[in-house]
Amino acid sequence: MSSSNNPPLITHIYTADPSAHVFNNKLYIYPSHDRETDIQFNDNGDQYDMNDYHVFSMDSISGPVTDHGVVLGLADVPWASKQLWAPDAATKNGKYYLYLPARDHEGIFRIGVAVADKPERPFTAQESYIAGSYSIDPASFVDDDGKAYLYFGGIWGGQLQCWSKDAGEWVFDASKTGPQEPSGENELALYPRVAQLTDDMLGFATPVQDLVILDEGGSPLKADDHERRFFEASWMHKYNGTYYFSYSTGDTHYIAYATGKSPLGPFTYRGRILEPVLGWTTHHSIVEFGGRWYIFYHDCELSKGVSHLRSVKVREIGYNDQGDIHLVE
């Protein structure tokens, strides 16, 4: 599809990492807000120096986009020091929850939550991050039975590679910050993480665990399988009773997906949804709206390839009889 047929949804500011949800029969988009900076590009992602969130809404997929303005800023998050990266949102118990990653005052990425009575604002951040949370790219999922889950993790600047288990506890190793990840013939890929949320959606009800992704033969994906293994950008949706976990392969820039029978996995790799876009990162969400399915994502077309200035786009997707996902032309 040519870029002229697939323009950015939002052009007055730069937006990225779109999390799309349908609340009250309206489509809401919760993206990160890119801004221009003099910080040089590096593998820690310091150039992604976002400091607030906007919320956008649409009454139809082809209609105008409403910007509800800044709904939360860095100064409103007591525990955070910088870099309000890719958020997500959920609703339960008549409230709306905005899950947000940021560096704490020690420079470690954590995940916090802000709460609102409406999907667009005003959001009030909790005093501290979620106990036991770490890394980036939170993705919330409320299942049909009312149980809610939070998926998260990102390698390199997202610090997922810094966390390992010691005596059953997740421990941070600052020496592994930067563009590091496992490598070697027998090394397994780093998995995304998941925990069930408490009923009030403000904490973890279960310990954080790996979300295992297997190949077609049932073996865990290997660390050097860069075209299939997880890197960042978790997303969960459900279609015809099957759980679909989709994610970015990061340094190879694919949006891939895997399916499973439980929101906690294991998941089996199924294929790609999106090929690489213009720009270094790729990050998406998948949502049903008006009886059709869409993938929201970003690229750098509007900024003419400036990798930290991205813009949200959308494409329709479909499913075949086997449940495989394809782009609708």
From TrEMBL:
GO terms for molecular function: hydrolase activity, hydrolyzing O-glycosyl compounds. InterPro entries: Glyco_hydro_43, Glyco_hydro_beta-prop_sf, Glycosyl_Hydrlase_43_Enz. The keyword Hydrolase applies. The record marks 137 as: Important for catalytic activity, responsible for pKa modulation of the active site Glu and correct orientation of both the proton donor and substrate. It comes from the Eukaryota. GO terms for biological process: carbohydrate metabolic process. CDD domains: GH43_CoXyl43_like (cd18619). Keywords: Glycosidase, Hydrolase, Signal. Belongs to the glycosyl hydrolase 43 family. This is Alpha-N-arabinofuranosidase. It comes from Aspergillus nomiae NRRL (strain ATCC 15546 / NRRL 13137 / CBS 260.88 / M93).
